[in-house]
């Protein structure tokens, strides 16, 4: 249930019937040959599919995140961490004013994780509210499914290559890329990072079968639905 497909009266009715709502968070950053908006596409889609049978509103995805390592790749846009924190806090304030108190943040970008600290501070100022931070792609059951299919999985590799994150007329390389030396990578400036990383894939195959990807997706949707639906104090 996308808020984009609701009016204010419908949102008001939902918040009176159910305290739960969802905010997807993504990023606009390089993903090798995939869409620059992979993280936003996947966070919003998994949230919408998970929420559908529960009739829980999904607010519009936050399309920009914290991604300073990739700023030398054209199309990448990073927010300052302080800006991301401020945006999330402002959106949470609006969701609470709308009547929601049990909010799940469905995060699709690992770089956004430091902003979780701002959510903890927000909870201190908003007693009676509850917020879950859910990294959908590395939640236990989803990541276990990824590892069972192929343990060599990373940023911009096959594990993010879904039918809805591919671009038309862009063919994926057939070879498996060697894994990145992440420790060395993290100590470099963005220009040196780009020179070391090349096309953007951290390592692994670029694409696997749709059957593999849909099997992962089914687990991710079910696991996300469980997080949204259950465990509220």
From TrEMBL:
UniProt keyword annotation of Metal-binding present: yes
Cofactor(s) essential for the protein: Zn(2+)
Keywords: Hydrolase, Metal-binding, Zinc
Pfam families named among the record's database cross-references: Creatininase
MF terms (GO), sorted A to Z: hydrolase activity, acting on carbon-nitrogen (but not peptide) bonds, in linear amides; metal ion binding
Source superkingdom: Bacteria
InterPro entries in UniProt: Creatininase-like_sf, Creatininase/forma_Hydrolase
Single GO biological process annotation from the record: riboflavin biosynthetic process
Family to which the UniProt record says this protein belongs: Belongs to the creatininase superfamily.
Name used for this protein in its record: Creatininase family protein
